[in-house]
Amino acid sequence: MLNIRSFNLGPLQTNAYLLTGADPAKGIIIDPGMNPAALVRSIEGMEIEAILLTHAHFDHMGGVDEIRKLKKCPVYLHALESEWLTSAKLNGSLLWPDVAPPLTTDPAEYDLAEGQVLKLIGHTFRVFHTPGHSPGSVSFLCGDDLFSGDVLFKLGVGRTDLPGGRERDLFDSLRGKLYKLDEGVKVYPGHGSRTTIGFERVRNPYVTM
Ligand SMILES: [Zn+2]
Ligand SMILES: [Zn+2]
């Protein structure tokens, strides 16, 4: 069974997720955001097998540098955003100087792509390429748990007016992929509280099935 802890990090209240399986000493992190001190404290003594990024906006990658150096763990990111970790312009941190300093880190060790299956912490994670909010946005499905980044929120969706965003892609990602999952799938978004596919399919004010 997958154990999920969430951390609300940084000025944009980004959700970072720390996941563990049967062995509580081994974990993975999805989206280590800015100011990750609370998360860093929680992984003391743990082995971190990987950092998975739903996309490379600064509020999701702000903690990558610190945790990667500390744990020597590889980072996974969709190929369409492979330049974004090294560019404060592309990851958006240059655009909001009052919110974030310019943030950069080394490129990701591994590319992600649609349909890829990752075996980590004794679990299987399926990768869905879900662009719209950003070109390389992905969602991760593990059993009945979906990590949707900034694509799908509780009663909301990600903005599509940032560089590389596209409303048509967002609709296709939701109707063509995420809304086709079982209604009971729990959704852990990049911001805000948890929801389910069944709830959003019917109640989401921006995109319903
Ligand atoms: Zn974003
Ligand atoms: Zn975000």
TrEMBL record:
Reaction it catalyzes: 3',5'-cyclic UMP + H2O = UMP + H(+); 3',5'-cyclic CMP + H2O = CMP + H(+)
Domain of life where this protein originates: Bacteria
Alphabetically ordered keywords of this record: Hydrolase, Metal-binding, Zinc
CDD domains for the chain: metallo-hydrolase-like_MBL-fold
Cofactors demanded by this protein: Zn(2+)
Keyword Hydrolase part of the UniProt annotation: yes
Keyword hit for Cell division: no
Residues covered by the Metallo-beta-lactamase domain: 13-191
InterPro entries to which the protein is assigned, alphabetical: MBL_Glyoxalase_II (IPR051453), Metallo-B-lactamas (IPR001279), RibonucZ/Hydroxyglut_hydro (IPR036866)
Gene Ontology molecular functions: hydrolase activity; metal ion binding
Function according to Swiss-Prot or TrEMBL: Counteracts the endogenous Pycsar antiviral defense system. Phosphodiesterase that enables metal-dependent hydrolysis of host cyclic nucleotide Pycsar defense signals such as cCMP and cUMP.
Annotated PANTHER family: HYDROXYACYLGLUTATHIONE HYDROLASE GLOC
Protein name: MBL fold metallo-hydrolase
Upper classification of the organism: Bacteria, Bacillati, Bacillota, Bacilli, Bacillales
